[in-house]
Design a protein that fits this description.
Layout: E1 2-6, H1 10-26, E2 33-38, H2 42-52, E3 56-58, H3 62-65, E4 72-75, H4 82-91, E5 95-99, H5 106-119, E6 123-126, H6 133-143, E7 150-158, H7 175-178, H8 182-198, E8 201-209, E9 214-216, E10 222-224, E11 230-237, E12 242-248, E13 257-264, E14 267-272, E15 278-283, E16 297-301, H9 322-338, H10 347-366, E17 370-371
Parallel strand pairs: 1-2, 1-4, 2-3, 4-5, 5-6, 7-12
Antiparallel strand pairs: 7-13, 8-11, 8-17, 9-10, 11-12, 13-14, 14-15, 15-16
Helix pairs in contact: 1-9, 4-5, 5-10, 8-10
């Protein structure tokens, strides 16, 4: 299986790492390689290709998309380019691995999802947190009915990257390139996790925040902020549960703080990305008694205990980190192509998340609760 990578910022480098390291983590059964890399700046593409042995390099994405030797296109470009690029790739018969969000609006995302299904190609979203071992264990526990009916939830995804107004704004802070703000960037992950674990949403109430209206732009000149730096949302699940989202890049002291809690009538789960090796589970049926009995949260050591073929490297007791979620995500994509499986999360999931994001922005604009 030969892959072409479009864009080589931090995510392009992350994806290249995953492709090259799949045999270490999942066995040698997959013969996967990067055949070419494309960036807008040809010199950057050349440097990436030579430094990481990524085959040919180009500044024209068509050299990747229409290359007859390439089986799959990996999209790591800014959000506003996803739609046109993915559409060309699907029509060219390529499988597609696309960074989130899928597009900049629901209409585009829906079209891509429908097109992927019609053309019969495998198209997967990069919602890498689904593939952290504690999240996979949480999904099992919920599916087993041990949490019961979800009553409430909360998700916080917090960074501190937008606090320095003297630092030049990146493209993810520019709505003209990103299509949105922090809700698109970090919020898409948070929404996907709740959708993945708790099901579809019934309604949303959104509130946007720009704390620093004036900051330093990309060119070093004063620039008026045009995208949300923080976003807050109350959501109701179709099952009746109610929860909150807090998404921010202006949280002092935060690193990559993704904190999830889900509370049901039979149990609860907790997960913290900064403590990625463990899932905390509360079983409401556990007997209490003197000194507490067996009540309380159980700390489940998920670590690298992935089901086969995962877990072979560096060993089931070894701790995991952020990259392990991306490795699992890429394995899922390659496995879907090689063994003709339904990719998950597919573009259908990407379109649904896009719908939630769009309704949340609309709710913030109108100042009222909106049905999904």
């Amino acid at each position: 299986m030969k892959i072409g990578i479009l864009g080589f910022g931090s995510m392009g480098k992350t994806h290249a790492y995953c492709i090259k390291n799949l045999p270490f983590f999942f066995g040698s059964s997959f013969d996967v390689q990067v055949l070419g890399v494309c960036t807008r700046n040809l010199a950057n593409a050349e440097n990436a290709a030579k430094a990481y042995d990524l085959g040919f390099y180009t500044d024209n994405e068509d050299d990747i998309i229409y290359n007859s030797e390439i089986d799959a296109v990996d999209i790591c470009t800014p959000n506003i380019y996803h739609y046109e690029t993915a559409k060309k790739a699907i029509l060219a018969g390529k499988h597609v691995y696309c960074e989130k969000p899928l597009a900049v609006n629901y209409a585009q995302a829906r079209e891509l999802s429908d097109l992927a299904r019609e053309r019969g190609v495998k198209c997967q979203m990069v919602f890498n947190n689904r593939f952290m071992s504690p999240i996979m264990r949480a999904k099992e526990i919920i599916n087993e009915g041990k949490v019961g009916r979800v009553l409430s939830f909360s998700v916080k995804y917090l960074h501190s990257s937008a606090l320095d107004t003297e630092k030049k704004a990146g493209w993810k802070q520019d709505k003209d390139i990103c299509g949105g703000g922090v809700l698109f960037d970090l919020g898409s992950h948070a929404v996907d996790l709740i959708y993945h674990l708790c099901g579809e949403l019934e309604s949303v109430i959104g509130k946007s925040q720009i704390a620093y209206p004036l900051r330093t732009g990309v060119g070093g000149q004063p620039w008026e902020t045009n995208a949300d730096e923080a976003f807050y949302m109350i959501a109701t699940l179709k099952g009746g549960g109610v929860g909150t989202f807090e998404i921010s890049k202006i949280t002092t002291g935060a690193n990559d703080d993704l904190v999830l809690e889900i509370h049901g009538d039979k149990g609860s789960i907790k997960f913290d990305l900064m403590d990625p090796n463990f899932l905390y589970f509360y079983d409401a049926s556990a007997q209490g008694g003197n000194l507490g009995g067996y009540c309380g949260y159980t700390k489940i050591e998920c670590v690298n205990r992935y089901p086969a073929p995962g877990g072979i490297f560096p060993g089931i007791k070894a701790p995991i980190g952020w990259l392990r979620g991306h490795l699992g995500s890429y394995y899922s994509f390659v496995d879907s192509v090689e063994n003709n499986k339904k990719p998950m999360p597919d573009f259908e999931s990407g379109a649904y998340v896009q719908l939630i994001l769009e309704r949340a922005y609309e709710s913030a604009r109108l100042g009222k609760e909106l049905k999904v």
